[in-house]
Amino acid sequence: MRELFDNTIRAILADQLSPEQVIAAEGGEFSRALWNSLEENGVPLALVAEDHGGVAASLTDVCGLIITCGEFSAPLPIVETMLANYLLARKGLPPLNGVVSFAAGDELVVNAGGVSGSVANVPWGRHADLILAPAGQSLVVLATGSASRCEEMTNTAGEARDTLFFDGATPEQTIVLDGLASELLLLTGALIRSAQTTGAIMRVLTLAKDYANERVQFGKPIGRFQAVQHQMALLAEQAAMAKASCEVAFARSAMEFHEDSITAAKICAADAAGVAASVSHGVHGAIGFTHEYTLHISTRRLWSWRSEFGSATYWCRRLGDKVCKSGAEQFWPGVVEGGFPSPV
Amino acid sequence: MFIEQFRYHPIPAEAEALRAEVRAFVAEHTAHMSLRQRADSWMGFDADFSRKLGERGWLGMALPRRYGGAEASAFSRYVVIEELLAAGAPVSAHWFSDRQSGLQILHHGSEAQREQFLPAICRGECYFCIGMSEPGSGSDLASIKSKAEKNDQGWLLNGQKVWTTNAHRSHYMIALVRSGESESRHGDMSQFIVDLTLPGITVRPIKDLTGSEHFNEVFFDNVQLPPEALLGKEGEGWSQVTGELAMERSGPERFLSCLILMQAMIAEIGANADALQQREVGRLTARLMTLRQMSLAVTHLLDQGENPSVAASCVKDLGAVFEQELPEIAQLLCDVEPTQSGGSDLAQVMAYLTQQAPSFSLRGGTREILRGIIARGLGLR
């Protein structure tokens, strides 16, 4: 199934998403035609059971699909929608209709008067029909139409990251979880951003490799200079590390989100993002610094995606604290098992 | 592209089932060792320990049963060696024969060679070293000059190898030497199994910067090799060595050399790490977990009979950077003065591994060579 997903999404994005459209989306346009096409191909429901209209794919099956969305800088919350429907499906609930997004900041209050407070950093919030947001142990589904206000913000790549305000809104659904809803949404967001970051890294690797083979200086392609080759090797190594860590995180999360594998993926992808942006710009020289050339479409996303849903520093500290609390004797067993006990 | 090769390949259950037994055995046999001794990692030599591993059936595990092996998957061996390395067990005696010489003989050797060497390798009694570098040929391996000339008794070997780890305590060397005239730079090399007790061979240990003796120079002065010393096909030495290098570059020994220091550092930090300690320990842990999975992905490819040389180079270079950073980060996080003798376990381990670290990006291929291989794998050049 994985190969089918990979090929389908690549065909759609290669055919229907131009760099011009990505730039237009930065100006606030929503790619409705592309969204419709993704919907017709069942992407929002990929992880949903068949009796709810989906194809019951596993997270492992969609790892490549999400990486590809990152590679093409898909300017809409298709991955957020797919994962939101997955979270509902895991609770036995039907998928949502329309454009769905989610955020992890726990700042809503639910009481008899409805849902009040704000939800910050909602990806594509202004374009979404519905959002998932945490309120303590409750996961609430809210119609964006019920928000009292939308404060528009954008990340370094001009992607909408809005704050929605609610004042006694009636939630579409309220799902009570065993733990904090913010934790579930944070892990979900970290997982998908790791994969999208990996995709953007793959794109800048390809651009830099092609450019190094084409650009001639001192009578030969610059890719023949050892200094350039070794920079490219560093970029490729980081890409491999990001890719490998994502594959592990998705595969291990097939049943339950696997916290420490997702953590490792977010850290490896975030660290790789910085190297990838730096090396790819270095190899391109001045042309890569122009708005006309497409390298910045990916590098500006790398500079934001690496920090969304928890920066490398956040996840490193969280993991490091667990490792130190579980002690030296537990270190190697933890590495082998791929996880460390949470501090009590 | 090789990056696509890094998929998730967990250790199969039947291999994982070995772990508890191996871990208990290793704990028992390393209990008497100091932390500093355990930091020797795969440089610690103990023939008795190697024979005990052989008795357990944990050497040459991938080899066929008829030669004393277990016909186990590469993952079974992986479980055994990562547990040995993680505990700092003394594995050096059998290391090269178990990792590559046995497989090299299985794949390229004659039936007689297999019968002669493989059972002894599996028993932990027959140790090999790898003769590649020469005084004028380090990274540029294809420029080697040692030469085996055909004569009526077999081959007459002359020349010199250098930086040969364990030559002073091994029984045999698998040597890459020139064996004929060829237009191609890679075309006239062959591999030979050289009995290190033959007349005309001189082995001289070279002290490393810590004063330890691990590597050697080896001189061949009219050494008469029998015809059956040839390993594989005449003239195929280069391609045989290239295959061998993938086995050599992707294993857990490429990122576990400083594991003892990581553990000592965590013990020193204790449960209440500060922000910097949390961040650095977390980052190292995430990278180690990922490197291990990358190494397992390459193990899977090797097990499938592929030659993932670019992916293996990736693991080795990333692993060396990781291993070399660890002593630096330990120094950053722990306010401890490294000591060669006296002082705490941590101080001694830190001193020892700080001094060993430069070798991590030399042995098994320098970072410049590895990055060149990766660049070529990308399609540059």
From TrEMBL, chain A:
Q: Which of UniProt's keywords are assigned here?
A: FAD, Flavoprotein, Oxidoreductase
Q: Which cofactor does it need?
A: FAD
Lineage, top-rank taxon, reads Bacteria
Q: Name one Pfam family in it.
A: Acyl-CoA_dh_N
Q: Does the keyword Flavoprotein apply?
A: yes
Where does the record place the Acyl-CoA dehydrogenase/oxidase N-terminal domain?
3-92
InterPro entries on file: AcylCo_DH-like_C, AcylCo_DH/oxidase_C, AcylCoA_DH/ox_N, AcylCoA_DH/ox_N_sf, AcylCoA_DH/oxidase_NM_dom_sf
The segment(s) forming the Acyl-CoA dehydrogenase/oxidase C-terminal domain are 193-297
Q: What family does the Swiss-Prot or TrEMBL record give for this protein?
A: Belongs to the acyl-CoA dehydrogenase family.
This protein is called what?
Acyl-CoA dehydrogenase
Origin organism is Spongiibacter thalassae
From TrEMBL, chain B:
Ranges for domain Acyl-CoA dehydrogenase/oxidase C-terminal:
274-378
What InterPro entries does the entry give? Acyl-CoA_DH_CS, Acyl-CoA_Oxase/DH_mid-dom, Acyl-CoA_Oxase/DH_mid-dom_sf, AcylCo_DH-like_C, AcylCo_DH/oxidase_C, AcylCoA_DH/ox_N, AcylCoA_DH/ox_N_sf, AcylCoA_DH/oxidase_NM_dom_sf
Give the matching Gene3D superfamilies. Answer: Acyl-CoA dehydrogenase/oxidase, N-terminal domain (1.10.540.10), Butyryl-CoA Dehydrogenase, subunit A, domain 2 (2.40.110.10), Butyryl-CoA Dehydrogenase, subunit A, domain 3 (1.20.140.10)
What is the protein named? Acyl-CoA dehydrogenase
Cofactor(s) named in the record: FAD
Ranges where the Acyl-CoA oxidase/dehydrogenase middle domain occurs: 129-223
Q: Respond yes or no to whether keyword NADP is given for this record.
A: no
Q: Does the keyword Magnesium apply?
A: no
SUPFAM superfamilies recorded for this chain? Answer: Acyl-CoA dehydrogenase C-terminal domain-like, Acyl-CoA dehydrogenase NM domain-like
Ordered alphabetically, the record's keywords are: FAD, Flavoprotein, Oxidoreductase
Acyl-CoA dehydrogenase/oxidase N-terminal domain location is 13-125
Membership in a protein family: Belongs to the acyl-CoA dehydrogenase family.
